[in-house]
Amino acid sequence: MKKVILIGYMAVGKTTIARLISEKMSVKYLDLDKLIEEKTNLSIGELFKLKGEIYFRNIEHETFKYLMSNNENLVISTGGGTPCYANNHLFLNGKNFVSIYLRASLSVILHRLTAEKKTRPLVANQSEEELKEFVAKHIFERSYFYNQATFTVDVDNKTPEVITDEILKLLD
Q1: pTM listed for this prediction
Q2: Contact of 135 with 9, CB cutoff 8 Å
Q3: Whether the Cβ atoms of residue 29 and residue 22 lie closer than 8 Å to each other
Q4: Residues in Cβ contact with 124 at an 8 Å cutoff, skipping those fewer than 6 apart
Q5: Distance CA 93, CA 3 (A)
Q6: Which residues pair with 152 in a beta bridge?
Q7: Are 135 and 106 in contact (CB under 8 A)?
Q8: Dist. CA 1–CA 42, nearest whole Å
Q9: 102 forms bridges with which residues in the sheet?
Q10: Which of 91, 40, 99, 34 is nearest to 68 (CA)?
Q11: Backbone dihedral angles phi then psi of residue 77, each to the nearest 5 degrees
Q12: What does each of the 172 residues of the chain score in pLDDT, given as a tens digit?
């Protein structure tokens, strides 16, 4: 067995798909952001606000590195920026790792983020135009890192079950 790592931008479905893969494979699932929140007793939004992004990225890297170094079989849902900092992208491929980039179009991401604004501190106070600019810029900057994944799965117009089945076929 390997570690299955899901990467991609906010709102592409990493958490939902990781849970489904975990259930179907009977393998433990972990959400990197939730682990960091438990470790620090702060939400991701509070960490950014109180300690800053560099502090958060350091904790994120150390937590991710630890997960990659243990022998446990896992399905891991990462934060949208995880592969883009501290050489975390180097953990995306290897003997015991398989990474899946869940790729969504800009329009799908914007639609989902607009619906989830209250639970997304990074975008909560942005206008529609600011949000579009913010997301487009991030996707452009992060695409190199996302494309380091073992596999890419497009998620537009697909149910979580269809996406999960596609990934399970890739893992066979």
Answers
A1: 0.94
A2: yes
A3: yes
A4: 117, 118
A5: 10
A6: 101
A7: yes
A8: 33
A9: 153
A10: 91
A11: -100, 120
A12: 589 999 999 999 999 999 999 999 999 999 999 999 999 999 988 998 899 989 999 999 999 999 999 889 999 999 999 999 999 999 898 888 999 999 999 999 999 998 887 777 677 788 889 999 999 999 999 999 999 999 999 999 999 999 999 999 999 8
Nearest Cα neighbor of 29 from 10, 3, 60, 8 is: 3
- H-type helices in 52-153, by residue range? 53-69, 106-115, 128-146
Tokens 């991609």 sit on residue:
8
Q: Which candidate, 89, 81, 30, 73, places its Cα nearest to that of 53? A: 81
- Strand 28-31 vs strand 97-103: parallel, antiparallel, or unpaired? unpaired
Neighbours of 137 (CB within 10 A): 10
Structure token pair of residue 51? 């300690």
**Closest to 11 (Cα-Cα) out of 137, 115, 126, 143:** 115
